[in-house]
Amino acid sequence: LKRLYPTGSTGLILLYSLAPDMMTASPTTFDEKYEGYILPEVMNLPNYGTQSGKGTLNYEAIKAGDVQLIISANTGKITESDIAEADEMQSQLEIPVVLFSGEMDDVAETYGLLGKILGREEDAQKLTEYCQEIVDTVTAVSAQIPMEERPTLYYAEGADGLATEPASSSRSVVFNKAGARNIAEVEALSGFGQAAVSMEQVLSWNPEVIIVQGGSEAYETIISDPTWASIDAVRNGRVYKMPNLPFSWADRPPSVNRFIGLHWMANLLYPELYDIDIVEVAQEYYKVMYHVDVTREQMEAVLTDAVPNN
């Protein structure tokens, strides 16, 4: 196997972390903002389309590129409809399709299967152990905090921050494992998620911590708009923007990019119990998972508005 194609961003990050040299193209187009955070040879790959979001795959380009294997990674547990969709894609393309779970708890199974397919079982095992050690370290800290003593958290999504995910959503996994108490009482929506809420609801929840979706413009609104000013998180300077380069640290896509988010969230929530230099930890993570050496200055730029100012 030499020419693989991931059908979306979840599969892209999974494959990139283990075998970037086997990617014949990318479902994501990388512009200059990614320079230094993504391998140059991956940045310059052609794009054959995506299943992520509302995108579409370019079957003609995939066939013309002589792709040998399609990597399709789900955002959560694999369902019967996911299998049927993968079967249909395989039938139309006449190229084998392998479907992976995107669940954080399935990382050992996911890397194990991918490593076996690619003949890189040893590398896959190292990545599995690296990710699992992060989970074990962070959850050992969060387990010390009774649920009723955990800080309440609101995940602000959308352009105005008035969309969110409940604790039961797969998009809240990092917050849950790191020891936050997601306070949003909304339905967990499939697909894009982002249940709409009112300003009155957010005011009534009065979260102690607000995490703003990576890439959202809502951060400036939340910290400066008078309608948000009475919320504890805003009054106490505990509004943080999720880092988003080269991929989000805790969500969208929900892939192996999220493990660094556990370090970040645990350090934000419990700095006395989880006293780390998040810049140094992230630099190591980027080297292991993304195969790039990021300077301290570059990482501090990624963490703009994502950590306390003091």
SSE inventory with pairings:
Layout: E1 4-6, H1 9-18, H2 40-43, H3 59-64, E2 69-73, H4 80-93, E3 97-100, H5 107-118, H6 121-142, E4 152-156, E5 163-164, H7 173-178, E6 181-182, E7 195-196, H8 199-205, E8 209-212, H9 218-224, H10 232-235, E9 239-241, H11 259-269, H12 278-290, H13 296-302
Helix pairs in contact: 5-6, 6-11, 11-12
Helix/strand structural class: alpha/beta
Rounded Rg: 20 Å
Low-confidence regions: none
Gross morphology is globular
CA distance, first residue to last residue: 50 Å
Order of helices and strands: EHHHEHEHHEEHEEHEHHEHHH
User: Care to count the β-strands?
Assistant: 9
Give the strand content: 5-15%
Q: How would a textbook summarize the main sheet? A: 4 strands, parallel
Summarize model confidence as the mean pLDDT. 95
User: Helical stretch count?
Assistant: 13
Enumerate the strands of the largest sheet in spatial order, edge to edge or round the barrel. 6-4-8-9
